[in-house]
Amino acid sequence: MTVKNVYIFVADALRADFLPDTVEQVGEYLPTIAAGTNSPAGFASIVSGLYPNQHGVHAFTHRLDPEFNVLTSRSIDYDTRFFQVYETELSEVLGMDQDTTNPVPDLEDPFVVLERDMTTHAPYGHPHYEDIDIGAQEYFGGKNVDWDRIRSDYRTASVRVGERFHQRLEDLQNAGKLDETLVIFTADHGEILGEYSEMSHGEPLIPELVKVPTVFVHPDQDTPKGEVMSHVDILPTVTDQLEVENPWKLPGRSVFANAHESLMLAERRSKPHTLQEFSFQNYYEYYVRSVWDADGGYVFNQTGLPGNIVHAFRQIPLFNPLRGRDAIRAFNALYHHVAPRRKFGAPQFSQSEARSFIREMDDFEVAPRGRTEEISEEARKELEHLGYI
Description:
30% of the residues lie in helices and 19% in strands. The chain is built from 13 helices and 15 strands. The longest helix has 28 residues. The chain is globular, with a radius of gyration of 20 Å.
């Protein structure tokens, strides 16, 4: 065993079918089911090893209980960092200080680092968002939505994020740390690029948002087991490779020890937030859950009737600037937003088994004390710029 350190590189909003070949070729690829379809839920699941219904983080106004962040709970034993090139509310969600310059040259063994790269987040190809004026809503919105151009921008961005990942591998190599470091490349959620007349991420809950890539660059060239994994498998994989005990009971497993024998959960919970400005989102809760295996999955809309009515109303182009101009595709999108249940692919389990798994995860013996907090005006403007509010 030569793994002393772990470096987790998260490409924000990179879907599985846009994984650059240059990334897949340097390690072992394993298709992954994202735990949630936005950054707070996805990152919280990566650092806690828990599903969103267990760690309680669904939005940027939520705060992960520090008890369930391995980067804070292990900070005494490891040099733990959260790195992103500019300050965002995600550091507050995770309860961590944030490095805005490359931490690799200053790392001390042993270390566990989490990096968020925004190259594949809209507007695509601009990781340094403070240097540009256009926001995500403006990038997608208006009458001149060009799906081909947007997909081309996204493909270019996916190539660029591959280049940035290779630069990080080079940084680790130059620092003399790569030979003792497990490097994990993954994504927090996918992205919709015109499918169902939709753009961006969050909802509806569809494969383009749920299926993300994970690539392991292992110093011993170990091969992960199984056909598919979940975000909740990342933490037990890390603890297994570092040869430390799991910090709390986990629903996942180490990909180097066992194949995934269970089903996997992905969900979207758009809870009313505490922001003061008017928003229809303050008046209802949109809650959709899904269960997947390597071949497909079932999606269940658990939103109440009043909530579904308000949510459907929000999909009207007047209120949703991401809506395209194709009426037929837009109607198809509305179906995916409010249908009580949907099936994708050819899952090797029944709806009944899916519902039973959801109940099992709800009864899982974890009781996080999730918190919701008001955010600053500066943070609110940043989230608005990125299209989250």
